[in-house]
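Anyone else keep sequences and structure tokens together like this?

Example one:
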Amino acid sequence: MKVLIIGSGGREHALGWKLDQSPQVDELFFAPGNAGTSFLGTNVLINAMEIDQLVEFAKSEAIDLTVVGPEDPLCAGIVERFEEEGLKIFGPNLECSQFESSKDFTKKFLQRHEIPTAAYNTYTDYDSAVKGLGEVSYPIVIKADGLALGKGVVIVSDYDHGVQTLDEMMNQAQFGEAGATVVIEEFLDGPELSLLCIVSHNRVIPLDLARDYKKAYDGDQGLNTGGVGCFSPVPIPDDVEQSINEINKMIEQGLIEDGFDFTGILFVGFIIQDGKPYVLEFNVRFGDPETEVLMPRLESDLFDILNKAIDDTLIDEDLIWSNDKAVGVILTSIGYPAEYEQGHAIKLPVANPVGTILFHNGTAFDGDNLVNAGGRVLTAVGLGKTQEEARLLAYQLVGRIESDNLTYRTDIAK
């Protein structure tokens, strides 16, 4: 079987790494991939948003399954284009992709089905939004409604900070069209959890829990990023687990009642406040960095799982998890998520320490030299019987990577 993976990050490398273990998979292609994926399969010089070219490639190569990594092509209707050509593809359709392309769309769904979430208001013009700032208690959260690479969320401490944030989003177009509409919602405080679910024609089948780290620096300081570390599983009290299971059922029922036909990944971001889980957000694709710590713990055949989800034959028992703990530490270019330089040489260890895996997020080759080619560059994953063992192994691998332009947080999973 031939598989095409669309995307170029650590998520796509981890998916390819897992799919490569399937006895059913003969060839892997990545479009466009990165330096790391080139060791697993063939990188194809087609961008993730060049949908027509991707369709033609899948047809010419007789691709048996396409897996979409990033959100942009999903929100641009890639699933419909592939299915029109009789090509098998894993990901939600354009209608269901609105759960990521519009935070307002998601909040309305959650409110309509009485799923616990923060109180909110949506604004499409600046003056109304500023007026709304005078009607709330602080702190609050201001979110760009559209796609903003995981960075369009700002915790606002007071009215003046809110006016500045709205001006940057709505007037200065800090996040482009994504910030033309904003969601202002109450601030919830507590630990955050990531729950990726495989959805098969509206049936919600959760993967294991993970927890990522969004802030750039130790102690959760600095700017929001796309995620600079992660660990899985996440121990939670039984009553919280039961509440999350109930919310999953409510989501499933909501999808059915609203007449969706959702097949793909539904990423549910939870926050636990006062022992009660609330839904912070939905995404419609594999999370990054969550995928890098989930795939090494998944004992089932991923190719089999994705096909069963599409074919409506997937059951909960198809997902089997290792008891190992996984910790992922992301090495980033200095300056990320603001301005950073690319093209700096990276020297990797000849052999990774036992119990570790290295995924590439933003790498390329400059001649024979490996260089950084993105803000998030490498993910060092440690696997151990305890979280601390996994953490030590991850940092052991980090310590063997040499570059003058990479940095990382030292407190992941601590």
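And example two:
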Amino acid sequence: MQQSAETHRAPRAAKDVPRAVVWFRNDLRVSDHAALAAAAARDAEILPLYILEDEAAGDLALGAASRWWLHHSLQALAGRLAALGAPLHLACGPAEEIVPRLARAVEADAVYWQRRYEPWGIAVDTQIKAALKADGVAAESFPGGLLREPWEVKTKQGGPYGVFTPFWKAEVALGEPDEPLPAPKALKSAPRDALTESARLKDWGLTPTAPDWAGGLRAAWTPGEQGARARLKAFLDGPVARYQEARNRPAEGGVSRLSPHLHFGEISPRQVWRWARDAGRADAAAEQGVWAFLREIGWRDFNHNLLFHNPELPRENYQSKFNAFPWREDEAGYRAWTRGLTGYPLIDAGMRELWETGYMHNRVRMAAASFLVKDLLVPWRRGEAWFRDTLVDADLANNAANWQWTAGSGADAAPYFRIFNPVTQGQKFDPDGAYVRRWVPELKALPTKLIHAPWTADARTLAAAKVELGRTYPRPIVDHGRARQIALDAYQEIKGAA
């Protein structure tokens, strides 16, 4: 009977106290949250809502590592909202059914949310807006996940950019983003007597139990809005000044590691921009690093623009000529890559860091992705799917666009003939071998000059380091020089294709 009450309750008269559903999605914060601020500005009674929408996302749903993060991020958000006076309501299932039903149940006159840009999400939101309109309930969406909306940064012809550098120049030319909004000091909760009980987060099974493989994630991360702010502050208090140089050194703490916090919306790009710009103004030595860092926030915007204007980006080649590329189904090679057993220490270190922490340094991501698609000729979609399952920052737009960039099939792609050499990449960016020693400890006793190519060591050196190739550490599963030529020959076959 309660379900029936939710379904048939009519919206209240406009003279009553304003009441709104605020639907949280990939914006799990209370500060600089335009939808929440709009409801609070009306002094409305609020039902904060989060819906787990696995069915709508289909094969693009969150992977295992991201689901672990989501659990803890929702815990943090629920605590913050409860402290403000409006507890979070959880539901699971089709949002196009749940949102209108809950709006009727609490007699809401409005539903507010911040926009998302995944194709499946846009389709769901469009359907919900129509259903709410039919019920006489206002539906209003707000920006908040990007510096600029995908339709705001346009070429002179009015279309989207396909190359990053002019996109970034155009975005910067639009001026400073709006100031971040403060968090509400308090919220009023909508009455819940007509609601079915909120789902229990623990019942969603977002965290692993048998086995519990998330120990490394717990040690590495603090999900939630407070964790995001602490992460940004730590970066701006020091590392940002040397960001341009240190960002390519995986063994150094030279990057912000904000990507999962941005992905889940625990901090907004506008907040990052404002606080980074303030840090640059306060310290001239940091200004150059600040702009190099903000350029990466712009790269994130660029990738979301690509996805918005090319909704099949996660599944289809941006450049259609790659439809004819002779990819291989090298299952043994793929398995070795996922396990960090390729015989190339830099690649293996990155893949093991990913498995342990849900994260991989960006320089190593590029090398690892290049190895899969160009040394092994495994389709980029398989790499994208693996990263989506194992990364805590598996943002759909970034993941798909960056894999296509590496594969050469994407927008603003690296030329296909740019094939990362896993040995020289290690020698250049991990010159003392600290990153490899951290993640491939079976090689830690090798001399630095040999650690990125252990197969070149003589028998005495290997014995002294207790390394037995093929037993304690694999020999390379492919010869890079030969694989590079095969990849280039394959590209020549499709070079002239439309």
